[in-house]
Amino acid sequence: MTFMNIVIAPDSYKGSLTAIEVGTTIQQAFLSEIPHAGIEVVPMADGGEGTLDSFMYAIGGKRFCVEVTGPLGDKIETEYGVLNDGKTVVIEIAKIAGLPIVPPEKRDPYKTTSYGIGEVMIHAMERGYRQFIIGLGGSATNDGGLGMLQALGVTFIDGNGESVKPFGEAVKEVAIVDFSSLHPLVKECQFQIASDVDNPLCGERGASHVFGPQKGATPRQVFELDKALDHYANVVEKKIGKSYKNVKGAGAAGGLGYAFLLLGGKMMSGSRIIAEVTQLEEKIKRADWVITGEGQSDFQTLYGKVPSYVAAISKQYGAKPILISGGLGTGYEQLYEHFVSCHSIASGPMSLEQCMEQAKELLFTQAKNVARLIKAAGF
C-alpha cells in the first residue's frame, strides 16, 4: 500500500461534538487502520458555533476572558481570541449572545439583547486591537444589533425622548438615532464578517421570518419583529443617507449583520475566511483523500455550508472527498455529485438523543469502516 495524505476538515456536530472533537476522532480511527498515513486535522466552521476554537486550534493565539452582558441582560463570563499574528481579534457571537446560552424555556427574541458584543469589542479596542474577524452565527437575538450599537455609544431615542432599551421588543420604539456618540476607536477598526447567511434584514427571507422561530418567536412576534426591523432601518438610513437593509447578509444573526455593515464591515463567507487563515487549500493540494462532515447533511449542505466548500476545493485539486455526518436528511442524494461517498454515523434505528449521546463512539466506528475500505482498495 502506498503512502497517502489525508486532510480531515469537518464542521462541528452541533450540540454534540465540536469540530475539533470530530476531527480528532476521525483521525484516531484512520490511524488505527492506516497508521503510516499523513493526516492533518483542520477544524472548520461557517462563522457560527466553534469559530473561535477552529482558529485557535489551527493557528494558535491567546484567549481573553471578560464579563459582559449576556443575551438575557444578566452578566456572563465569555471569551474572545487574538490570533498568533498579535493583531487580529476573533469574536464568536455564539459565545456572547448565542442561543445555547439561553435555556429553552426563556427563548424569546423580545427579551434578548446583543449588548454584550459591543462590550467585548470595547474590551479589545481599548487594548490596542483594530482588526476583527466576527463569527456571525448562532445568536439568540433579533434586535438588529441595536444592543451592540448602544454598547458602542450610538444613541437611540424613542418618541418620548427617552433612551431605548437594548432588547428586541424595543426596536420598534426607535425614533431618533445619533451616531456622533459612537466610540471613537470604532472608526479605526476593520471588521471582516464571517457568515454564510445571505438573507436581507427584512421580508420573507429576512432575519425575523427565517430565523425568528428557532429563537422562540411566535408567528405574531415574527410579523411584529420584521415590521420593527424595517422601521428601525428606515430611521437609521434616513439619518446616514445610505441603505444596507437589502444587502446580502444583513439579516444574519438577528440583524447583527446589518449593524456591522453600518460600521463598515465586509461580509465574507465564513468557511472561506477560516479556510484562508488555516491555509486549508494548501493542505488539500497535497491530499489524496479529504474527510469532512457536519451534524446533519441534506440538500441545504450545497448552499455554502462547510462540507460543500471543502468538497469544491478537493475537486479542484484532484483530492477525493468523503462525507461523514451525524445524519443524512432530505435530498442528501444530491451530495453524491460532490462526494465519493456519504455516510451517517447511526449504526441502526436510533433516536436523535441516542445518536447525540453516543456520537463520539459512533463516529469512530464509521470512520474506521471508511478507513478499512480505503485500505482494502489499495489507495
From TrEMBL:
It comes from the Bacteria. GO terms for biological process: organic acid phosphorylation. Signal peptide: none annotated. One of its GO terms (molecular function) is glycerate kinase activity. Keywords: Kinase, Transferase. Its EC number is 2.7.1.31. It holds the Pfam family Gly_kinase. InterPro entries: Glyc_kinase_flavodox-like_fold, Glycerate_kinase, Glycerate_kinase_RE-like, Glycerate_kinase_sf. It is an enzyme of class 2 (transferase). Belongs to the glycerate kinase type-1 family. This is Glycerate kinase. It comes from [Anoxybacillus] calidus.
